[in-house]
Fold this sequence. Notes:
- With 504 residues, this protein is α+β, with helices and mostly antiparallel strands.
- Helix content is 38%, strand content 21%.
- The strands form five sheets. Strands 5-8-3-16 form a four-stranded antiparallel sheet.
Amino acid sequence: MGVKMGSRVLAITFFLTVLIVIPGIAIGASEQSANEMLQLAENAVKDGNYEHAYNLFMNASEKFAALGNEAEKKDALRQAKRMSWLFAEMNLNRTSADETIQEAFPQFTQEEREAFLEPGASIQFESDGQIYYYEGIARNIRFHNASLSQNYTRSLGESPFFDQISPFISAPRDKKNPLYQNHTFQGTGELSIPRNLLPDNGTLQVWYPLPVSIESQSDILVTSVQPEEYVVSEPVTTGDIGEVYLEIPLEKMMDDYVNVSVRLTFTTSPRILDLDPDAIPVYDTSDPLYQRYTKSQSNINVTPEIMALANQIVGDETNPYKKARLIYDYILQTLPYSNVPHAYLTAMSIPESEFVHYTGFGDCGTQSTYFAALCRAVGIPARAPGGYQIVPGHQGTHFWAEFYLPEYGWIPVDVTVADAADWAYNATPEQVTEYKDFFFGNLDPYRFTIQTDVDEPFSGEPNPDILFTAVHQNPSVVCTSSDSDVEMLGMIYSTYTFEDLTPE
């Protein structure tokens, strides 16, 4: 459910991005020719010729390198990296996209398959006169069709998330109910990068994500950070994002892998709504919190179109709690969960909230930022926290949403987990309604929160070498002595695992 890309996708991305270190044309450049090559590359981007732009940026970087212009070389490599990220997950042509659909759904006719390849019916983009499709096209067809989703969960023999959580939602709210008690977890984070993918010398900068102290996450104890001798700043578990920062001298790393690890414990609490919907105090619009979380940001962006839709959704309603519920219901009813190519969004600088608004496709991150954007559009402070979902048997990266009410604080909302009710082959209509109602205002304790909002950066950002700035579920990795895409290594070679230490 999270925004973390799959291993196969990342492998493809890495294959593309390591091309940066492969020599291209013969070097013999003047500063003028290097700048001309750079201008051609920028023009190719404007014209939507991204493959051609990649090659031109690469050539420009080589020319700048020959001139000893390190800053210009790095900038050209960064732009080439952006171009390669466009194709990391958007890597199917029409033929391969059709074959992917046919393999997943052999019951579809040719006409039915072709309908999914039309503009607007799937995630796609054009480069160099060629249409490229998202590699998750078949999964999204299933997610957008309740019958197909239910057939899929039936084949699994379970309905993920629904089966694990719904029994507790219906159970008495007491200490004997696992959902309604605090849970203590042990977390283990591992980053293990093959040594041969890194340069011989230079400094590897690593920002490792940690849990952050909030109302529903407490007693955080970081028991170990290794290699300890390269920790530059002590672990931070307060504020808006949790992190520890390391600088590793690569010339001292002689083993087959460069390893970073963290060990920690933390306690999570369920969040159960207890309020009178008809007695919500009025916002103090001069409050810095109100002003901060009602404005546009890089990923929670409120466009005029989003504002118009938000006003249409809430109509004449003035109660902020009820307005938020109308927005929640709208997303559940009109925007089913989808997988999303986040590398593509990053490379194109497309805000998460805008992507789902204009395409109709959204995963946990995009659904949550969209909820927040629609809330902000009608004067409700909102944000999108993220980290991991650690439901037993279903651990993975995840984002959800919150909106703020005076005197009550942040109210949780999880559109994506609520969507799981529609995938359940073994759910009654009453159970579906109860399950969806729960995730407006309530939250299970199976969460590992790293950042309070999607637009909160690590302390090392904005860093010109970090492209992926919205999601911090994996370590951010930078090495200025490398010309390859070291940042991607932090996504490919890192894991977080969790063990529930709560006595049964």
